[in-house]
Design a protein that fits this description.
Length: about 325
């Protein structure tokens, strides 16, 4: 039976990540907590809006209501990457070689490790940013689609159009697909190696009863898990046309209890599934076998992250009840 080491914080947890084997918990109030030979806290922002792990540098990137973009080290050190007074930094992404992307309003910024900055202005508000897995390229989600920009080239963007509000964006690990979360309770995808304007380019993933706030690619990119239903909806991406014409897996169904977070295991085809009542299950894709990782808690699961070995899962909730689950115990 997995064991849970609890950590009770005061408020909503916006992000969870492992730096090395140290779990970090980012509170919406702006505090960054870590469990490193005791509970340690750093005051980072006056209101935190975004938090992601930078794999290239094994640091945490955060954006806040104070207009700051920060890099948090494993020792809790804080380095300011950018400061845009009177702007909210709600979108942030980590790229290759220490590159960082962030956005406010209609503008996406990319800051390279050498200090070089590039700006990309959209016609509508930027709702999401992601770096491509290869090459210095970003995808910017906006109303009616996605813009693809080469950071180091003065080329015109490639526009991936689909009507509606796109609220987040992600590349598949192999770079063959771009997928967005939509306001209309759906995912939408584009196949990058098909001709622009062709019907096979589009992938419609619909039927969700609620807005999708969490997606996670499996270790080899063959599956995409998503929240927004009373089960984790897991789409197959093994075939050349992705999930088109194929039914998704529905894992961890619990009546009408909504899935709020998903996190795929770093090596195996398993997903951690967090629910609105604070419960967490681990479910295997091959046979839908379930393991209870955590019983219901005080609030909906709002963030989860596996450590590198996949033997520990850190989690946080909207009510601040957090913890680390050791699945080898």
């Amino acid at each position: 039976m997995p064991t849970v080491a609890p950590l009770d914080l005061a408020g909503h947890v916006a992000g969870v990540a492992y730096l090395g084997d140290v779990p970090f918990f980012a509170e919406s109030a702006g505090l960054i907590h870590r469990l490193d030979h005791g509970h340690k806290t750093v005051e980072a922002h006056d209101g935190l809006l975004a938090c992601v792990r930078d794999e290239a540098t094994d640091t945490l990137l955060t954006g806040g209501e104070d207009g700051k973009v920060l890099r948090i080290g494993i020792d809790g050190s804080v380095t300011q990457i950018a400061h845009v007074p009177r702007k909210w930094i709600s979108q942030i992404a980590a790229g290759p070689q220490g590159a960082v992307a962030y956005a406010h309003g209609k503008t996406a910024h990319v800051k390279l490790a050498d200090g070089t900055e590039k700006d990309f202005t959209e016609e509508r508000t930027v709702e999401g940013i992601a770096f491509a897995p290869k090459g210095l390229r970003i995808a910017v989600a906006r109303y009616n689609g996605v813009s693809l920009h080469w950071v180091a080239m003065a080329a015109a963007p490639v526009d991936l159009e689909w009507k509606g509000a796109h609220t987040g964006v992600s590349f598949s690990p192999d770079g063959r697909f771009v997928v967005t979360m939509m306001q209309e309770n759906a995912l939408h995808g584009w196949k990058m190696d098909s001709k622009p304007g062709s019907e096979t380019r589009h992938m419609r993933m619909t039927g969700y009863p609620a807005k999708i706030k969490s997606i996670s690619w499996s270790a080899k990119g063959k599956w995409l898990a998503s929240s927004g239903a009373p089960a984790a909806i897991v789409w197959p991406f093994q075939a050349k046309d992705g999930p088109m014409g194929k039914a998704p897996l529905e894992l961890g169904t619990r009546g009408n209890m909504m899935v709020t977070q998903v996190a795929c295991h770093p090596t195996d085809d398993i997903a951690a599934i967090g629910y609105a009542d604070g419960m967490i299950l681990a479910v295997r894709f091959a046979d839908a076998k379930e393991v209870l990782l955590r019983r219901p808690g005080k609030g909906a699961i709002s963030a989860m992250a596996w450590n590198r070995s996949g033997k520990q899962l850190a989690f946080g909730s909207e009510a601040g009840d957090c913890g680390v689950i050791d699945i080898t115990a």
